[in-house]
């Protein structure tokens, strides 16, 4: 039961940090979402920073599992990168409402000068490193890091514009464009800038 309550707290905090932001979310908000007393809440977490660390750990584990699934199920590096690209459509309604869960939290924590900012950035680094491996498998060699950062930067930009303009057609056009670029890279890994 205690582990279940702890996980409910982390899940609720994850949703609230995403929807409201870390700084705007209080202990009371999280306790209300889980429907537990503050005393029971403090049994599991003494500080909001402890909850934040648990949320970052959850997000990191969730993203590692997603990337591992794509590694296992997608036919090759182009298909795996395409899975990453299409995530902005899969999660479009939430991204349009709140932005990218990884980018928004990392940015907020860096703006706050929060000590967990570097830990939150491990998720972005996870994406970068995974994408680098995909481009290496595609044969991009020394260009793999640049290509990976291009896709990662593209996804963050699309998420930001999606939230700003709420334009589904724009997101779909951008996904088609980046997938066409990916096809060009796959056709000639060293030629595409």
Folded structure, characterized:
By secondary structure, the protein is mainly alpha-helical. The chain is built from 10 helices and no strands. Helix 1 crosses helix 2 (27-34) and helix 6 (92-98) crosses helix 9. The mean pLDDT is 95.
Q: Helices and strands in order, then pairings?
A:
Layout: H1 2-20, H2 27-34, H3 38-44, H4 48-73, H5 77-90, H6 92-98, H7 101-112, H8 117-138, H9 144-165, H10 168-187
Helix pairs in contact: 1-2, 1-4, 4-5, 4-8, 5-8, 5-10, 6-9, 7-8, 8-9, 9-10
Write a brief structural summary.
The chain is mainly alpha-helical and 193 residues long. It is built from 10 helices and no strands.
Q: Note the gap between the termini.
A: 54 Å
The sequence of SSEs as H and E is: HHHHHHHHHH
Structural class: mainly alpha
Q: How many β-strand runs?
A: 0
- Tally the helices: what do you get? 10
In what range is the share of β-strand residues?
A: under 5%
The Rg value, from CA coordinates, equals 18 Å
Low-confidence stretches: none
List keywords for this structure.
0% strand; mainly alpha; 193 residues; elongated
